[in-house]
Amino acid sequence: MIKQVFAGHKRRYGSRRIVAELKKQGHEVGWHQVWTLMKQAGLQPIQPHQRPGPAKSFVPRTTDSTHGKGYWPNLLLDQPLLQGP
């Protein structure tokens, strides 16, 4: 059942989400039991969490500094300095 839920959610569900899914289906399982069985079966989600602390959040990489297209000039350099707020 664990493998079915894991595959059904395209390897995105970890042990805690799988426990919640199995409980919805009426099965009584514990988080540690599912985690152990997943480890034995070699099932590792795409974004794994570290145990026992909180899950790490995913931080996407949004800047590509190696694009080679140059950069925009600083348009504020030609402006006069501000004298007030």
From TrEMBL:
Q: Which Pfam families match?
A: HTH_21 (PF13276)
Q: Which InterPro entries match?
A: HTH-like_dom, Transposase_IS3/IS150/IS904
What are the residue boundaries of the HTH-like domain, all occurrences included?
A: 2-51
User: Could you tell me which residues belong to the region Disordered?
Assistant: 45-71
> Which first-to-last residue range defines the signal peptide?
none
The name this protein goes by in its record: IS3 family transposase
